[in-house]
Amino acid sequence: MIIVKIQNIRKLYYLEQVLYGVAKTITEYISLGEDYLYHGQNHFIGVHTKDQLVVNTKERSVIVSKLSPEIFPEYILIRINKFDKIAVTPLEEWMDYLKRGTIRPDTMTPGLGEAREKLRYYSMTPEDRYAYDEHLNAVMIQNDVLDSAKLEGYLEGLAESRAENKEKGKVKGLAEGEAEANLENAKKMKAMGIDLEMIRQITGITL
Question: Which of 65, 115, 111 is nearest to 90 (CA)?
Fold first, then answer.
């Protein structure tokens, strides 16, 4: 298939218009393919110079240069109705699930475990689903109460510890202040020529 789009006037968003045309064509012709998985990407390479096309585009009122792969996405087309293999790879397991709604009990494919839980949930009757939701809600409330109690206990313990340390600090500060004052007084008494034994009896400090 060849798509031809002619640009005869200057357009900043010409490649975006090409992108739309390609996407529209793909959706129209995808039913003609035989495989179940298609991969494609757009690269514009010079036939003779082998250089890669750089185009100008407008972003936030500024003209910037971009390579074509920055504008065109990488295409991965999956045709679920064409898949008829035994699922081996993670992608095939997902395709098997999307086509048949089945998930292997031992699957390690990312996301399928969560999908299985969702299937179980939505396969419940409305009554069972309501009871299940209420159960989860009760568990969350219970966990919230326990966490709140733990937090309150922690904050109370922290406050008590800070108060105790503060009180100890006050006592220690007073004792240190008294010792310093006694030492200063003892030094002054010694300078005045007072007997050292008398100084010791008054201040409790031996010089």
Answer: 111
pLDDT digits (tens, 9 = 90+) for 85-115: 888 888 888 888 888 888 888 888 888 888 8
Which of 197, 201, 205 is closest to 180 using CA atoms? Answer: 205
Distance CA 121, CA 135 (A): 13
Q: Encode pLDDT of 61-94 as tens digits.
A: 544 455 555 656 666 666 777 788 888 888 888 8
Grouping H, G, I as helix, E, B as strand and the rest as coil, residue 52 is strand
Q: Please give the structure tokens belonging to residue 58.
A: 């407008």
Residue with tokens 């082998």: 50
8 Å CB contact between 68 and 31: no
- Whole-angstrom Cα Rg for the chain: 40
CA-to-CA distance for 126 and 49, rounded, in angstroms? 66
Q: Which of 23, 29, 25, 13 is nearest to 73 (CA)?
A: 23
Question: How is residue 112 written in tokens?
Answer: 């399928």
CA distances from 193 to 38, 139, 188, 196, 198 (A): 106, 81, 9, 9, 11
Tell me, what amino acid is at 128? D
CA 88 to chain centre: 30
Helix (H, G, I), strand (E, B) or coil at 30: helix
